[in-house]
Amino acid sequence: MKSYFTTGQFARLANVTERTIRYYDKQGLLKPSFIMENGYRKYSEDDFIRLQRIISLKQLGFSLNEIKMMDIDTNHTAMEESLQLQIDLLDKKIRHAQLLKDSLVQTKQLLRQGSFTWDKMVSVLQLNTEEEKIIEHYRDERHLSIRISLHERFSQNSQGWFNWLYQQIDFTEAHRILELGCGSGELWKQQPLNMRNKEIFLSDISQGMLESTRKELGEAFNYMQIDANSIPFKQEYFDAMIANHMLFYLNDVTAGLKEIHRVLKKGGHFYCSTYSKQHMQEINQLVKEFDEQITLSDRSLPQIFGLENGGEILKQYFSKVEKRLYKDALSVDDAQALFSYIMSCHGNQMDMLSERMEEFKSFIETKIEQNGAIYITKEAGVFVCEK
């Protein structure tokens, strides 16, 4: 039989103030299991688990708005995932704290010995600001995982994007391969690639992302932190290069393509994917219907490099350019999954919805109830280029 607690009992048990409990209730983070006729709020053991997760995430550096968008379940699997997340983040913080301590001790010794340099102080200052990057990496990794999950769960094409993209790549003569912006390494997971006589470099601008990918894929690959606008390899080094949905994120697409052309061998192939202006348009329409001021991206990525203009851009650098399209659509009948996807985007939705998250969730649920599911257009593809 479940035990229930009043607000005061619940607060004392969790070692927080009643004010904190009331604030989390007001913010929609922690609602009581039920409210009695006399207005007394009753909290359960499941609510205690939810509170523990909220407090832990807050202590790890997440804002309440970020925690709001997380699906805080209390089932066994969700609890295990939450505990593992906290363990992983704390491990990274411990390693960082030890590195910072060692650096401070060394700097102190150099100061006493009279051999102190300002370069050393700069490195200490940089280490002091590294901790926020640990949380920032988790945000990026989690958001990427959310977006991939929506496509995997609700795509109408059972082949899957990464399987399809992998099959577009000709590995027969490709011995040295570089993927730019590998993210979580999804392209290479569970793929039957014979690594004999092959050197595959997975790169990303985020060192934290690379560490997670290395942990997932192992040491069969080479991992490098690379800015695609400045690739640290000699001319004509690679047989094949891959950029999956990443060219439009570059600060300078022209500079990036010049670098890609420089390090790719003559006769080598460059595989770069993107999407059209119509891709996922129904999601934009959905948020605009709720609030016209919401934008899910701070810039139009397909205008920078999309299926419509990508071919003409690439023809300036490659002798052959072929566009291959991936046929698919989404049919989403899970409001929480769609809500999480929207909140993971790069726009202003976090700020615009911070006080209206529950209202927005209800809005999505109503749309799904009315239509059975929300149909979402997908228009993505890959350009296969030859130098």
TrEMBL record:
Database matches in InterPro entries: DNA-bd_dom_put_sf, MerR-type_HTH_dom, MerR_fam, Methyltransf_11, SAM-dependent_MTases_sf
GO biological process, one term: methylation
One of the record's GO molecular function terms: DNA-binding transcription factor activity
One Pfam family in the UniProt entry: Methyltransf_11
Domain annotation HTH merR-type: ranges: 4-73
Keywords, in A-Z order: DNA-binding, Methyltransferase, Transferase
Entry protein name: Methyltransferase domain-containing protein
